[in-house]
């Protein structure tokens, strides 16, 4: 049976033949050359010995075990030293049909004088000199005429030079039709031993290959055309996004101008009322000033007349003036009393804002809301997965129950099994960890470099600073004068900590200050019925007005308005599925993972279900915590009792 008629190989037999042919070829080489042959040389020798382009014919089906270990096969006699010497002389003098590869590309025809293993190309004497002078290729392994592959009518473009990704020192020489994937000899042994259709690649039929190639090209062209259409649609979507952004800005500016215009109108009305009052009061006061001036003038004139009559000694005139003045004095005394009274009772006023306006300013935190008219679906692709266990762990298996991202993209993991807090860098490599005093449950960021971890067994929360190492800070909770609670889920918003207390009676949500003192508690509905059964995780909306609680006892996601403690919406998980961790995105969407359904669900800001973001085909098994990094659009999901952490790209 020749090489050209073989289509499928038994893996064991193939590897045995590879070894046999390799030994045969090594026996033809001088000892020094055989000893210094590198692993890559040996692979090339394997390939050339079995290549369909060589003149080598495999021996018949011989019992390999019957061949003596030190004796070569009968079909290939070992040459004597004289024969070898003669053979070498002939090889040096003879002309071959093998052409220099670089010269052939320039339509020049020079006989090949050597073969570069790394480049898989033939070179003439001149090209060999240039090849050895180049810095990038001077260390390549060059075979001379005696050792280079003797391939007749060889096209260098057809040489198989694919390197196995898993085994960088191995060439891709086989193709498994069962799994539709190429493999090297090691992959063939390890992964495809039981496969019935393992093909040696040089033996593939050209018709079959060409047909498959044509179909692949058509498929690739069609896919490229679809991507071109998708790109045009995406560009139109980008333009629409710009228009929506401009419309949003214009609407906000219009609202601002409406406020200014209406405020200006109200100001004008208030100023008109003030001006009317002012003019009235100014008239009254001016009249009193005039009365005072007139009284002073009249009294001064009367005094002068009386004094003049007295000096002239006219008694009758003095008498008449006195009577007249007394009458005026009584009038002016009454006038003076009236003026003094009015001055004491002068109008006093000040500006008083409308209570509705003050209440409006107090209750209004934002100019408006960013309502999502149509929430587009999210595209999620698996980015990678990584292992989170380390040699310093107490157990071989991790159980990450809580996770969060810092603003710089570092991932913080709470490993309950190993009672540790772990930090993973942006390339998803575990860079540092610290041993905790007890089992953690959840973790959330409170700044760019600080996180807080819940420790249910200790009934405490602990702060940590995350730098090149993890620095433990203070613990809060378990206040002696107050009833202690076991805190599980934890979230943060504006100097307030939101914690779940599933062991309380009834189970509740507590809002604490940064020292651990309770500020508020949410436990019962307006009908005095318990809201929660087993709340384990919690998240807070970006404006602080809404919280989301994952209740594994009722299998619900509960959405609560923090302004009045009312339940806005309750989503019932299907088929007794337990909800896991929660995360709120910048745009307001909420993600949670289904513990039994092995998926990730997406909700809007109102807590209403939108879509299944990651299906149960996404490789998740009992997911229990989830976190999101908005800058990198990366979604991380951890799984119960697993060292594997999944990373997804969201677009």
From TrEMBL:
Keyword Metal-binding: yes
SUPFAM superfamilies per UniProt: B-box zinc-binding domain (SSF57845), NHL repeat (SSF101898)
InterPro entries, alphabetized: 6-blade_b-propeller_TolB-like, SGL, TRIM45/56/19-like, Znf_B-box
B box-type domain ranges (all copies): 159-193
Ranges in coiled-coil conformation: 217-251, 292-342
One term of GO molecular function: zinc ion binding
Key words, A-Z: Coiled coil, Metal-binding, Zinc, Zinc-finger
One Pfam family linked to the record: SGL
Residue span of region Disordered: 57-90
Keyword Zinc-finger attached: yes
Name listed for the protein in its UniProt record: B box-type domain-containing protein
């Amino acid at each position: 049976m020749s090489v050209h008629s073989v289509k499928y190989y038994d893996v064991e037999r193939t590897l045995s033949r590879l070894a046999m042919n390799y030994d045969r070829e090594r026996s033809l080489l001088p000892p020094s050359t055989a000893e210094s042959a590198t692993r890559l040389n040996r692979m090339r020798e394997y390939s050339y010995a079995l290549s369909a382009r060589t003149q080598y014919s495999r021996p018949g089906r011989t019992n390999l075990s019957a061949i003596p270990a030190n004796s070569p096969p009968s079909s290939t006699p070992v040459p004597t030293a004289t024969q070898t010497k003669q053979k070498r002389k002939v090889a040096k003098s003879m002309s071959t049909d093998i052409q220099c590869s670089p010269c052939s590309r320039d339509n020049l025809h020079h006989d090949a004088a050597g073969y570069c293993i790394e480049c898989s190309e033939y070179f003439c004497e001149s090209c060999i000199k240039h090849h050895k002078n180049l810095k990038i290729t001077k260390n390549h392994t060059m075979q001379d005429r005696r050792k280079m592959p003797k391939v007749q009518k060889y096209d260098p473009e057809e040489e198989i030079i694919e390197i196995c990704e898993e085994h960088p020192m191995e060439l891709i020489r086989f193709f498994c039709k069962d799994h539709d994937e190429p493999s090297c000899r090691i992959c063939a042994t390890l992964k495809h031993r039981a496969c019935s259709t393992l093909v040696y690649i040089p033996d593939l039929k050209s018709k079959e290959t060409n047909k498959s190639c044509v179909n692949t090209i058509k498929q690739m062209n069609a896919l490229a055309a679809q991507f071109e259409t998708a790109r045009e649609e995406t560009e139109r979507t980008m333009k629409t996004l710009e228009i929506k952004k401009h419309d949003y800005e214009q609407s906000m500016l219009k609202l601002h101008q409406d406020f200014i215009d209406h405020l200006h109108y109200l100001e004008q009305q208030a100023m008109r009322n003030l001006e009317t009052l002012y003019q009235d009061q100014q008239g009254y006061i001016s009249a009193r000033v005039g009365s005072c001036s007139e009284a002073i003038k009249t009294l001064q004139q009367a005094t002068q007349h009386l004094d003049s009559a007295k000096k002239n000694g006219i008694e009758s005139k003095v008498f008449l003036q006195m009577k007249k003045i007394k009458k005026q004095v009584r009038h002016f005394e009454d006038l003076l009393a009236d003026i003094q009274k009015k001055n004491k009772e002068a109008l006093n006023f000040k500006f008083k804002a409308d209570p509705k306006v003050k209440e409006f300013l107090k209750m209004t935190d934002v100019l408006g809301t960013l309502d999502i008219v149509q929430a587009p679906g999210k595209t999620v692709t698996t980015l990678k997965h990584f292992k989170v266990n380390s040699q310093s762990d107490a157990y071989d298996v991790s159980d990450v129950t809580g996770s969060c991202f810092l603003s710089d993209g570092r991932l913080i993991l709470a490993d309950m099994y190993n009672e540790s807090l772990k930090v993973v860098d942006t390339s998803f490599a575990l860079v540092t960890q610290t041993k905790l005093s007890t089992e953690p449950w959840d973790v959330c960021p409170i700044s760019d470099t600080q996180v807080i971890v819940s420790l249910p067994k200790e009934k405490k929360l602990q702060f940590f600073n995350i730098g090149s190492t993890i620095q433990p800070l203070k613990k809060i909770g378990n206040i002696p004068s107050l009833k202690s609670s076991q805190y599980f889920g934890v979230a943060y918003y504006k100097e307030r900590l939101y914690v779940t207390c599933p062991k309380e009676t009834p189970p509740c949500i507590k809002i604490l200050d940064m020292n651990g003192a309770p500020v508020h508690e949410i436990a019962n509905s307006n009908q005095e019925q318990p809201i929660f059964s087993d709340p384990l995780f919690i998240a807070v909306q970006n404006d602080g007005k809404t919280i989301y609680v994952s209740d594994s006892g009722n299998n619900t996601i509960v959405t609560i308005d923090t302004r009045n403690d009312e339940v806005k919406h309750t989503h019932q998980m299907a088929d007794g599925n337990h909800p896991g961790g929660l995360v709120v995105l910048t745009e307001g969407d909420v993600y949670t993972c289904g513990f039994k359904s092995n998926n990730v669900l997406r909700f809007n800001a109102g807590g209403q279900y939108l879509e299944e973001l990651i299906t149960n085909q996404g490789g998740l098994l009992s997911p229990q915590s989830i976190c999101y990094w908005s800058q990198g659009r990366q979604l991380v999901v951890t799984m119960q009792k697993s060292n594997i952490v999944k990373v997804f790209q969201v677009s």
